[in-house]
Structure formats: C-alpha cells, structure tokens
Design a protein that fits this description.
single chain; alpha+beta; about 475 residues; binds flavin-adenine dinucleotide; about 25% strand; FAD/NAD(P)-binding domain; D-Amino Acid Oxidase, Chain A, domain 2; 3 domains; eight-stranded mixed beta sheet
Length: about 475
C-alpha cells in the first residue's frame, strides 16, 4: 500500500513529453543492436537520480518501473533530507512536494510505562536552506522521475524487469528481460535500482551471502488528524514538522520506532529485525498498536483515524552487507546495494539512494564516453561513493547497526536511563536526595549492566559516533 491514494496528476511538461511508454509500444529500437545506452531498473529515488544524470549527459536512457507510476508501490517512514539535491537540481525548493519542514527533532527512549525525550527545536530549519522535510513517496518519486523525463529519459511504467540479458560470448550483462509482450530491452549498461530485494543484483552474483539479520521490517500506519490539531499537539507553527525517533518500543525485538508529522496526518511505526520478529511469533501490527498506546505517544496520536497501513523491508546491515557494486555491464545503487543508513538516531535512505544513484549515473556516463562498459570501466563508481557522503558515512558509522540493535541498547539502557531520571526527579523527603553516582550505580545494577559493560559500550559509542 502506498502513502497516498491514487496517482498525483501529471503536470503539463510531463504530459507533453510523452511521460509514459504505453504497454503496447515496443521497447526495441535500432541503435547499434541496443535499445538504449542505459536501462535503469526502478524509478525510486536511486533510479530517477541515475536516469537524470545520464539523460542530461545526452545518453539514451530507459527508466523501467514496475508500478503503475513512480512511487505507487513505495513506502517509507516519511522524512527526507533534500540538500543532497543541491547539486543535481539546484531549484528543488521551488517545486519539490513537501508536507512539512522538520523543525523539531526528538529522540525518545522508553520502557513499557516510562519515556525520556531529548527534544531539539529550531526555527532555522523552517526556512532555506532547510534540513529535513516530510514528503509522500508517490508525490516525491513521481516528481523526481519527472525531472529525469524532462531531461530526456524515457519512463516505462507498469513494466517489471524479470531478469538479466547476457552477451553469449563475453557473459557481460547487456540488458534486461521484461514482462512486456516484446520482452527484452537491450542496453549497453544496466543500473539496478530495484530496491531492497534486488533480484537483479542477486542474479548478477553481486551478493555473496544473504543474512536475514541484516534486514528489518518497517511497519507504518498513517493516521489522519486536522493540521491545526497536529500543530497544537506538537507545538508547531503552520508548515513546521516534527520527527521523533524512539528506542525501547519494540517489545524486546531489536529495532526502533518513529512518529512523523505530515500536513494533516501522522506517520507512526516500528522497524524490527527479521529473525527475532519471526522467533517472537508476534504480529508486527501489534507492536504499532502498543506504541500508539504508550503514555508518551498516546496523547499525540489520540483520535487519529487510520487511513493507511504498509510494511516494507529495510537493508539495515550497512557496510557489512553491501554487495559488489559493479560487474561487466551492471551497476547497483540505492537499497539494491544496501546503502540505506540505519544507525539508531538516523534512518536515512532516500538521500543515500539519490547520492548513490547520481554517482552510478556519472560513472556509467564516463564509461560510455570511454567506449567500454566492463567492470573496470565502471570502477569509478566506488571512487565516487567513497569521496562523497554515501560510503564516507557508512564507513564512519559501520559499528552503529550492531551497537544500536544490541540487547543492552534495546532493553537495558532505556530502562536504566528512565529509572535514573525517575530517581533524580523523585522527591522522597524526609530522606535527602541521593547523589548521582549512587543513582547510576544502583540503576545499572537494577538493569543488569555491569560497570565494565557500561564503560565498554560508552567507548564503542564514542568510536562509532565520535
Ligand atoms: C518503514 C520504513 C521507513 C523508512 N523511513 C525512511 C525515512 O524516514 N527517511 C529516509 O530517507 N528513508 C527511509 N526509509 C528508507 C528508504 O525508503 C529507502 O532507503 C529508499 O526508498 C531507497 O530508494 P531506492 O530508490 O533505492 O529504492 P526504492 O525506493 O525501493 O525504489 C525501488 C523502485 O524499483 C521498482 N522496482 C523494483 N523491482 C523492479 C523490477 N524488477 N522492475 C521494475 N521496477 C522495479 C519499485 O517499484 C520501486 O519504485 C524507510 C524505509 C522503510 C521501509
């Protein structure tokens, strides 16, 4: 299920550009035995960014999307960090679909009955250059794909790439099979931006081992509420938004939760690691229901009418699960290459998809200009990712997924922190106030955390986030 019902309307330029290749038109044409220079599979943020870069460089690009329009099948929590577009689309602020600009960023830890929130607000993020924004995927993805089409890419909707074509003599990838009647799309380079399950990257052999513990399942509800109610409850001015990331709300299953404000709805959900979810035999929607009932969340979501429910996998393993990024004739970007950054207080995938998609487009463009599309010609892709934020951030935060999903971080520390606060603020006169050291030691013991573990985790956290 997607973020909004029904496709947003095409704008004038999308209509006049022949935005869609109808199902009846052949994918084949006659350039050097290839239908196009590059076939980009998946019109999510990664695919559209890659197609945009390539089309601007003058290459013929076919952008395949299995959904009836870009974004129709896509979901996420709801906050994007669009500054990644500054170089790609400098005027993005003029027409990018935004629900609210995030001016309040809170990190909450909770136990079943307690919560402790680090709450940051700034009006600076409510005006240019902005920071984060809430946005609906069907609108966002369609807008970004529209930019690729304006640049000259051909968007082929309602078409699934079902496999890879290989050159019989060299074995290099030279296109994709599709579920269209006329089937194959030949291309000099294929860019797989087909999301977390990337059947293309797997078929190409880029993933060496697939470990379910590297994946989480995200479950989200959208609750309708009047915008004025949202603004009153979250202390926001019109146009401003809030982003809450939550730890300790997943019933002991490693993961986290989120609560975001759209214009007149809230997005609330949890993200949980797959093997433990399966072993728990819990229904994922129960976890969201419990989160909504928590005393720290219930007053914020009260009377919200459930208008959508959706679930999707997230590649959370970071650098440790990333596949090979290129082989002869193929590059892989975005979630298809596990580039989503899920590091506790950060859940950023769209900006990483755009950053990696654009880098894949640039590397493909350079390879095409050199007259080769083998793995060596495409190797510049990794260099580009290393020199921009995509791999730099993943490298820096490599330990974060393990640390954040560890048992102590999930259960013991939320308990310890909440109890500590309770101890600090509980007045037990006529007894005098206890000293902080005494409280820390007492609560660490109660939460089952030894001093050695506390110091070791503090050191790991420092190395991870420092
Ligand atoms: C619950 C949840 C919450 C999240 N919250 C956030 C958040 O708040 N902020 C954030 O930045 N990120 C968030 N993410 C992560 C973010 O959604 C992803 O990292 C991002 O969407 C990746 O973009 P992509 O283009 O690589 O892949 P996708 O967005 O998955 O796009 C892949 C596209 O390929 C198409 N496709 C797939 N297979 C084929 C095929 N064979 N043929 C043709 N088309 C195909 C799909 O229809 C889709 O359009 C969240 C994810 C989840 C699940």
């Amino acid at each position: 299920m997607s973020d909004i019902k029904g496709p947003p309307p095409l704008n004038e330029s999308q209509r006049s550009l022949g935005y869609v290749v109808p199902n009846t038109r052949s994918l084949q044409s006659e350039h050097d035995g290839a239908s196009c220079d590059v076939a980009v599979v998946g019109a999510g943020p990664a695919g559209s960014a890659a197609a945009l870069v390539l089309a601007r460089d003058g290459w013929s690009v076919c952008l395949l999307e299995r959904g009836s329009y870009p974004g129709s099948k896509n979901m996420y929590g709801g906050v994007i960090y669009p500054r990644v577009l500054d170089g790609l689309l400098p005027n993005w602020r003029e027409d990018m679909p935004v629900q609210r600009w995030v001016t309040r960023r809170a990190t909450m830890v909770m136990t079943e009955t307690q919560s402790l929130t680090l709450d940051y607000r700034t009006s600076a993020w409510g005006s240019p250059p902005y920071n984060g924004a809430t946005s609906f995927r069907p609108e966002l993805d369609r807008w970004l794909a529209g930019k690729a089409v304006e640049a000259g890419a051909v968007l082929v909707e309602a078409t699934t790439a079902t496999g890879l074509l290989r050159d019989p003599s060299s074995g290099a990838i030279c296109g994709v099979r599709t579920d269209r009647p006329d089937g194959d799309l030949r291309a000099r380079i294929v860019i797989a931006c087909d999301g977390v399950n990337s059947f293309l990257a797997k078929e190409a052999g880029l993933y060496k081992n697939l470990d379910p513990s590297n994946y989480t399942l995200g479950i989200k509800e959208v609750l309708s509420l009047p915008s004025k109610t949202i603004e009153d409850r979250f202390g926001l001015s019109p146009g401003q938004g809030a982003d809450f990331e939550i730890l300790g709300c997943t019933g002991g299953i490693p993961g986290g939760g989120f609560l975001y404000t759209n214009l007149d709805s809230l997005a609330v959900g949890v993200v949980v690691r797959l093997p433990e979810l399966a072993a728990s035999a819990r229904r994922p929607e129960e976890l969201v229901t419990e989160l909504k009932a928590h005393p720290g969340i219930a007053p914020l979501v009260r009377d919200g009418e459930l208008i959508e429910y959706s679930a999707h996998l997230i590649p959370e393993g970071g650098l440790d699960m990333m596949p090979e990024l290129v082989c002869d004739g193929l590059l892989v970007a975005g979630d298809a290459a596990a580039m989503c950054l899920a590091a506790g207080i950060w859940l950023e995938g769209v900006n990483f998809a755009i950053g990696s998609g654009a880098a894949a487009g640039e590397a493909a463009s350079q390879a095409l200009a050199s007259g080769s599309s083998n793995a060596r010609a495409l190797a510049g892709y990794r260099d580009r990712l290393e020199s921009n934020f995509v791999l730099a951030d993943h490298r820096k935060l490599r330990r974060a997924p393990h640390l954040v999903l560890s048992k102590r971080m999930q259960l013991s520390y939320p308990q310890l922190m909440c109890n500590l606060m309770e101890g600090v603020f509980t007045v037990e006169n006529p007894s005098p106030k206890p000293g902080l050291t005494k409280l820390v030691l007492r609560e660490a013991k109660r939460s089952g955390v030894s001093l050695t573990e506390l110091l070791s985790d503090a050191w790991t956290a420092f190395r991870t986030f420092g």
